[in-house]
Amino acid sequence: MPELPEVETVRRGLQPVFEGARIDRVETRRPNLRYPFPERFGDRLEGRRVSSLGRRAKYLVADVEDAPLLICHLGMSGSFRVETDEQAATPGVFHHERSKAETHDHVVFHLTDTTGTPARIVFNDPRRFGFMLFAERDGAEHPMLSGLGVEPTGNTLDGVLLAELFRDKKTPLKAALLDQRLIAGLGNIYVAEALWRAGLSPTRPAGTIAGPGKVARERAELLATSIREVIADAIAAGGSSLRDYVHTDGSLGYFQHSFSVYDREGEACAHSGCAGHVERIVQSGRSTFYCRQCQR
């Protein structure tokens, strides 16, 4: 699944074309993706302008005038392609190349942008694990959005908040960070990278960084800072560039070349002065990469 930086990269690639554009026509070339399209899907969008394109966790959320909120999820292999009369480009940065086969083009938004220029936004999804659904105007009541935790991209996520979220939790720190009810949008890759930067073991109980002492407070603050920084670095690079994902302009991102522990099993730890190496363990059925020597 794409992680938050990939989705944010896609949002930024779509935003210049989608925001302010009028949706002239919506083509759905099959009755469903992961879920059936909402009833009268195209009719409820056509003729209306897109006020804004946002992101909540790993979901794209389009605010369309006089229509429900449009929630989009890329799934495992979904991508958007922006087409004009002059060019076509795919927004996003991913390691596995995205499909360009038109047989997997399932949704086409025919637009007129703010300059009066026609454009098309095409959703391509070979595995059809993505989806498009409607939510009521407040959005929070939709099952996909309700109950999501704090976003990890702003200063709201600090050491004090992390301590509050993890207080008395005996679950492993990695599992707590992946709990979308606590922090929205974090995934396996960036949790591994943030824990390495903070020098914290993914196996330590989450509650150990929520104690009253100075050491616990420092650990919580360092972890919060590491999370924000690793997400910001990945967004700046255009995402992790994992398999199946591409940029709107078709270029690839390079954050994957900056991975310090993720998918580097057996390699020397990149922390200065550390003689350890990266190990792989399995937690809750998912691979965890970390250095046992410097992550405590």
Descriptors:
9-stranded antiparallel sheet, 22% strand, elongated, N-terminal domain of MutM-like DNA repair proteins, 2 domains, 296 residues
Overview of the structural elements:
Helices cover 22% and strands 22% of the residues. With 296 residues, it is of the alpha+beta class. It has 2 domains: 4-135, N-terminal domain of MutM-like DNA repair proteins (Alpha-Beta Barrel); 159-291, Helicase, Ruva Protein, domain 3 (Orthogonal Bundle), CATH 1.10.8.50. The strands form 2 sheets. A 9-stranded antiparallel β-sheet has the order 6-5-8-7-1-2-3-4-9. A hairpin with a 2-residue loop joins strand 2 and strand 3.
Q: Beta-sheet strand percentage?
A: 15-25%
Q: Helix/strand-derived class? A: alpha+beta
The strand line-up of the biggest sheet is 6-5-8-7-1-2-3-4-9
Just give the CATH class of the largest domain.
Mainly Alpha
- Enumerate how many helices there are, as a single number: 5
Give a quick account of the main beta sheet: strands, pairing sense, barrel closure. 9 strands, antiparallel
Mean pLDDT rating: 89
Q: Architecture of the largest domain in CATH?
A: Orthogonal Bundle
Number of domains: 2
Q: How many E strands?
A: 11
In summary, what is this structure?
With 296 residues, the chain is α+β, with helices and mostly antiparallel strands. Helices cover 22% and strands 22% of the residues.
Helix-strand layout with pairing:
Blueprint: H1 4-18, E1 22-28, E2 48-56, E3 59-64, E4 69-73, E5 79-83, E6 88-89, E7 105-112, E8 118-124, E9 131-135, H2 159-166, H3 173-178, H4 188-198, H5 214-237, E10 278-283, E11 286-291
Antiparallel strand pairs: 1-2, 1-7, 2-3, 3-4, 4-9, 5-6, 5-8, 7-8, 10-11
